[in-house]
Design brief:
heterodimer, A: alpha/beta, Rossmann fold, six-stranded mixed sheet, four-stranded antiparallel sheet, 10 strands, globular, B: mainly alpha, ABC transporter involved in vitamin B12 uptake, BtuC, two-stranded antiparallel ribbon
Chain lengths: 290, 348
């Protein structure tokens, strides 16, 4: 990257670059290590190799999208990142240090928050109890691990409101909420606790257009707060709207890697679809854009 | 949804949700049942004692000997597991305490301590086997039930040549221990001290379930073990702890019984496991886990106690007690399911 300290009026090309740099300040974060990285990770379930030699990194204050069709290994990847599974081979590095999470609790303690596809909410439990499940706030004086119910309810309401969701009754069981509301609870929860890395498993797949937009906005908000977001999806359109780096998974292998600067939406879609399927998809997309 | 409409409706929504909140309580059905049963036996009473304090002392005695174990059994059910060995564990621990005192001349308090430790070990084995094998706890604890039942008879016969352990009243230190586990209070009505244990355990369990982190985990583990694990709840530890608590409560009741009766039959407690489950289910626990309350289980135990005493006081043949309990169980679950479905289905 060229720098011209003597020029008071930068050339148009440089100006464009400056704008891009301002838009993506994370590229030059002083911290040399990515918030989260995988090095040569393989995961086998018996004779099935779900992930094969995956390497990737997730920087602080960026959105990293993992794209792949059904069966690509996205869910397995998430479960490794969040400590549910341990890799058969390879390493998981958190801020440059090799980690071996034995449980989701350990991953959480290290600052990795995950919103699972099945949302990981307990239907019969109330909204606020679900919100703090596994992370219950305790009264300061309490050695008996008493939950601070007042604080929990206030925080839960505030966090949900910040996401534009006004739950009528925090005592109502999560099972009675709509799909979008449950998603909101799960994401708000993860953001609230996601100190460093936030992993979202298909957060928009079950949502309508408007609610998807809300979720995408929330992803950007999390990025602005300096969170390293991992956004797992099979929707390249959603990914392209918010992503800084894109990884393409297919049948357990890392197919391709793109930076925001070097890829177009069409490029992403092309890489995802590939080959013979492309033409029909392109046709379909054209009918959409009409 | 527009914000103004939501605020305009707020007053009304609060009103509705307060009623819904009451309906959502798991123990509501049991409470209504308890009132009906109490009124029924007050009306059919032939001795004139049922609705008095004396009658209260009698039925709370029966209720306590169910409730002490029914409460932890309910917590275990909320966490999605059963313990069918809880009944026979009463006999096992009573026999063990008695044998330690009479055959091996262990002093009173060490014998009680060893008995509780043994019970904790059995609970640990139950829990570990359920977790390690992944088999339904119904099967694992049923196997434990038969094993303990066989051991109770075998060991007792081998050591005493009879099917009972006797002479506990002559053990040094009996009076001190009996004061805590097997005395009465509030004369002349003479409530059993076990009632205090029962109420204490109920209050403790209610507090744990409603206010503590561990209580939150119990509901989560039974409601959706996978979701609980994903959010970082230690599912195994939670379940194993509850198996240990259930076993300990059964051992407490065993110690209470052996001190009160001053002897123990080898068959003591067999069949009680279903009373505990009945009390828990009548009290609003879902068989599938994730829902229920400790107070509900205690109300369920009260219904059992009132039925046992009430049928005797009514002058009916006590053979009918179990038929009555069967009908009560069915009706209570029916009401619970109906109310629960409506309350949970109600969005606003």
């Amino acid at each position: 990257m060229t720098d011209s300290p003597h020029a008071h009026e930068p050339a148009p090309a440089e100006m464009l670059q400056a704008v891009e740099e301002a838009a993506t300040p994370h590229q030059h974060v002083a911290n040399a290590f990515p918030a989260l990285a995988l090095r040569g990770v393989t995961k086998a379930f018996g004779s099935v190799i779900a992930l094969n030699d995956i390497s990737m990194h997730v920087d602080t204050g960026t959105v990293t999208c993992v794209l792949g069709d059904n069966g690509a290994g996205k869910s397995t990847l998430i479960k490794i990142l969040s400590g549910v599974h341990q890799p058969t081979e390879g390493q998981l590095l958190l801020a440059g240090e090799a980690q071996s999470f034995t449980s989701p609790r350990a991953a959480q303690a290290a600052g990795i928050a995950t919103v699972f596809q099945d949302l990981a909410t307990v239907p019969l439990m109330s909204v606020w109890r679900n919100f703090f499940l596994g992370n219950e706030p305790q009264r300061p004086w309490s050695r008996l691990r008493v939950i601070d119910g007042g604080l929990a309810r206030r925080t839960c309401r505030a966090e949900l409101r910040a996401m534009g969701i006004d739950i009528r009754d925090l005592e109502q069981p999560v099972g009675t909420l709509s799909g979008g509301e449950r998603q909101a609870v799960a994401i708000a929860r993860a953001v609230h606790f996601g100190a460093k890395v936030l992993i979202l498993d298909e957060p928009t797949s079950a949502l309508g257009v408007k609610q998807s937009g809300v979720v995408l906005k929330y992803i950007l908000q999390a990025r602005e707060r300096g969170v390293a977001v991992v956004f797992i999806t099979h929707n390249p359109h959603h990914a392209y709207m918010v992503g800084d780096r894109f990884y393409l998974l297919n049948r357990g292998r890392m197919l391709n890697e793109f930076e925001r600067e070097t890829v177009t939406l069409e490029g992403l879609v092309t890489s995802m679809a590939g080959g013979a399927e492309l033409e029909s998809l392109a046709h379909e997309l054209k009918t959409f854009s009409r | 949804m527009s914000a103004t409409a939501a605020t305009a409706n707020d007053e009304r929504l609060v009103q509705v949700s307060r009623l819904t909140r009451v309906l959502r309580r798991p123990e509501l059905g049991a409470l209504m049942g308890a009132v009906v049963v109490y009124l029924l036996f007050s009306a059919t009473d032939t001795t004139g004692k049922f609705a008095t304090i004396v009658g209260g002392a009698r039925w709370t005695d029966v209720a306590a000997s169910t409730g002490i174990v029914a409460v932890p059994v309910a917590m275990l059910m909320i966490a999605g597991e059963f313990d069918l060995s809880a009944g026979v564990m009463i006999g096992t621990s009573g026999l063990l305490a008695g044998l330690l005192m009479t055959e091996y001349h262990v002093a009173m308090w060490p014998a009680i301590a060893l008995t509780l430790a043994f019970a904790a070990g059995i609970g640990l084995i139950n829990g570990w086997l359920v977790i390690l094998t992944g088999l339904p706890s119904f099967i694992v604890t049923l196997a434990m039930f038969f094993s303990l039942r066989g051991m109770n008879l075998g060991v007792t016969k081998a050591l005493t040549d009879t099917v009972r352990v006797a002479g506990v009243g002559d053990v040094p230190g009996y009076d001190g221990a009996a004061k805590i586990f097997a005395s009465t209070f509030w004369s002349p009505y003479n409530f059993r001290i076990s009632v205090v244990w029962w109420v204490g355990i109920t209050l403790l369990a209610t507090w744990v379930l409603a206010k503590t982190r561990f209580g939150n985990w119990i509901y989560a583990v039974g409601g959706d073990a996978n979701a609980a694990r994903n959010t970082g709840v230690p599912v195994r530890r939670t379940k194993i702890t509850l198996f240990v608590c259930t076993s300990l409560a059964a051992a407490l009741l065993g110690v209470i019984d052996v001190l009160r009766l001053k002897s123990m039959q080898a068959g003591q407690g067999v069949g009680d496991e279903f009373s505990f489950i009945i009390a828990a289910v009548v009290g609003g626990c879902l068989l599938t886990g994730g829902f229920g309350s400790a107070i509900g289980a205690s109300i369920g135990a009260s219904i059992l106690g009132m039925a046992f005493i009430g049928i005797a006081y009514a002058g009916w043949n006590t053979d009918w007690t179990w038929l009555f309990l069967g009908v009560i169980l069915f009706l209570a679950v029916l009401v619970n399911t109906f109310i629960g479905r409506r309350a949970r289905g109600a969005r606003k």
